Amino acid sequence: MTSPPVGRASRLAGYVFALTAGALWGTTGPLSTKLYAEGAALTGIGFWRVLLGTGGLALYALAADRALFRIDRRGVVLVGVGGGALVALFEVAYQFGIAGAGVAGAAALLYTAPVLVAVLALPFLGERLTTLRMGLAVVVMAGAALTVTGGSHGGSDGGTPAGASLAAGVAGGALAALSYAGTTLLARYAVPRYGTVRVLFYELLGGTTILGIVLPLAGHAPTAPPTPGAWTYVLALTIGTVLLANFAFFSAVRRIEAAPTAVAATIEPVVGALLALTLLGQQLTASGWIGLLMVVLGVAAGYWREAFRKGTGERG
């Protein structure tokens, strides 16, 4: 299905929202690393942050918009079950990616997602796979990889959490990328039909429910964050990377297609690398700085091209 055309101002806003979402998501690695230092379990971090996010949205609905609870059967299956499964997978997989491969390595693996989105948007959403989109996705992904692999993993003040290993980190980062690509495609289809807040609420509700069932069955029942500091980091993750970032991301996919949305949000690893540099003592090599420049220029090129494509009447 091809979405109706939107105006230049709306496309510009779409890129701003996508960049905002990416910047907020860039805090995930550093905040999670701080959580590991507080003794939080890998499998429990995602559960608590989506649970708090679900609770916050439920309170909002009870107080201001009870229509949020209403959704058709197709929406329950597609968003609640399908989207919830993607959320649950991402929340666990990305934590293993961060802990095993480091903030940089996990982000590098995660940002293979723009290429997946650019390819899968054709059969699933009918969005054209243009040479520009594929080339831009590859350039930005390569820049992101250089940025994050050009940074050290040392200098963190956290210990190594149980279950962390390089192999688990690689597997976790790859699964997180697959989940992120699926969530992008699902959001592009579902948000125009059900609305930003409703989609986010049912995805988080589904993810919380699935994690609440699967984790205990797998022998990893979620335990509460062990310290007041850990609760503070979980709350920061909930507000910044779950609620605000997803509101921004869903607002982006209402205005621009799935492929450029995913490319613009690739600013995330740059933000993550810079935060790791300043907060965790990780350093960027020359290749890391080159990669950062590639990401910034690639995102800027996509912003310019996509924002003004409609205004010039150009196709492609």
User: What level of helicity do the residues show?
Assistant: over 70%
**What's the multimeric state?**
single chain
Number of domains: 1
Binned strand content: under 5%
- Largest β sheet strand count, sense and barrel closure: none
Order of helices and strands: HHHHHHHHHHHH
Mean pLDDT: 81
Number of helices: 12
Radius of gyration: 19 Å
Quickly give the structural class.
mainly alpha
- Which regions are unreliable across 5 or more consecutive residues at pLDDT < 50? 310-316
Number of DSSP-assigned strands: 0
Task: Based on Cα principal axes, name the global outline.
Answer: globular
How far apart, in Å, are the first and last alpha carbons? 17 Å
Describe, in plain words, how this protein is organized in 3D.
By secondary structure, the chain is mostly helical. The chain has one domain. It has 12 helices and no strands. Helix 6 (131-149) runs antiparallel to helix 12 (286-312). The longest helix is centred in the first third of the chain and has 38 residues, at 73-110. It is globular, with a radius of gyration of 19 Å. The protein starts with 7 loop residues before the first helix and ends with a helix.
Keywords:
single chain, 316 residues, mainly alpha, globular
